[in-house]
Amino acid sequence: MNRALQLFNTCICHRLFGAPLVASILLLTAPGANAATADAVDSNRTNRSESMEASFPIQDFRAFSHENRFVTAPDTIDGKNADALRQISNSFRENGFDLTGHFTDSRFEVYDGIGNRFRGSAERRTLSIQEYKGVLRYDDKKGLIREFILEHETELNRAELEYGIPRYVIAAILGIESDYGQNIGRFNPFNAYVSMIVEDYRAPFATAQLEELLKFVERNEIDVFDLKSSYAGAISFAQFIPYSLNRWFVGDDVFDMTNNIHSVANYLAHFKEITGSVEEAVFRYNPSRMYTRAVMDLAEEAERLMATADAR
User: Any idea what the Cα angle at residue 6 is, between residues 4 and 10, rounded to 5°?
Assistant: First the structure.
């Protein structure tokens, strides 16, 4: 069994990273909204992306840089990263993707130093669970979860019945990933993945995710620059990386809460069947024991809060 398949079988994940691959990549990032949460959340996406690295048939753009069979990218691509962008354009052209228009779009940019965001993520630092929860703004999320459950009670109950995943766990993940849909990130996933390739930071992973992203936007007729993500390229309230979007996302609109509720449940149900438990499925969502602990603790808090309210 090759390394990619071994890694896929032992630690498959969406985001980092998505999410939303933050406190890890599949990928925590929360979505980049609040600085404190973004570091933690995006760090989650970090772990996810690392787990999925080499999990797909990956073509590294660097391997094509000197092969003459590719059509040369137009000279309209210029700037300090022009050579790298032409190489990326040439390699993707063979797979049917013309990126020239993307690279000359006014909304395109390379995020300098993107690798440093991953290296500085919360889960790469030695934190206690209390410190980790502080970075996540756990208490704020706990204070909002009951209201979120009541607002989306019908869909949460439907997802629990259909997928066998407790509604409290679904709500907890959406709370940690994106503050219940309030923080979707301030980056663009296309720019994020291209920046990783240009910087040669986990370029094979980024190349695979970029191809998945292009398939997703083509199938759904979306302008890729209209999307927001974490710095790790995790998209939607659930913070799915493109690989996960294409396999487990339910529905077309990535910013529809009903779709996100069912998508989280769908993802967890898949890995619950593989691992035998909801907790281990959460670990597959983001391979961090601190993340798993935070989600399960928040879910328990939610169940207690709901039970207390019902008893009044």
Answer: 120
Closest CA to 74 of 104, 119, 54: 104
Which regions of the chain are under pLDDT 70? 1-78, 121-126, 310-312
Q: In whole angstroms, what is the distance from residue 80 CA to residue 78 CA?
A: 7
* DSSP-assigned states of every residue in 280-307: HHHHHHS--HHHHHHHHHHHHHHHHHHH
Report how far residue 82's alpha carbon sits from residue 85's, in angstroms, rounded to the nearest whole number.
Answer: 5
**CA 47 to chain centroid:** 10
Q: Measured in whole angstroms, how far is the alpha carbon of residue 87 from the centre of its chain?
A: 26
Nearby residues of 47 by Cβ (< 8 Å), 6 or more positions away: 13, 16, 17, 21, 24, 25, 26, 27, 123, 286, 287, 288, 291
Contacts of 103 (CB under 8 A, 6+ apart): 77, 85, 89
- What is the rounded CA–CA span in Å between residue 253 and residue 245? 11
Question: What distances in angstroms separate CA 295 from CA 74, 186, 298, one per listed residue?
Answer: 48, 23, 5
* Residue tagged 């691509």 (tokens): 77
- The beta-carbon contacts of 218-227 under 8 Å, at least 24 apart in sequence, are 220/252, 224/102, 224/188, 224/189, 224/190, 225/102, 225/105, 225/107, 225/108, 225/188, 225/190, 227/188, 227/189, 227/190, 227/254
- pLDDT tens-digit profile of 168-187? 999 999 999 999 999 999 99
> Residue 306 carries which side chain, given as an amino acid letter?
M
In 179-238, alpha helices (H)? 189-199, 203-220
Enumerate helices (H) and strands (E) in the chain, giving the number of each.
Answer: 15, 1
Distance between CA 214 and CA 223 in Å, rounded?
10
Sign of the C-alpha dihedral computed for residues 103, 107, 111 and 117 taken in this order: negative
Cite the beta strand spans of the chain per DSSP E: 23-24
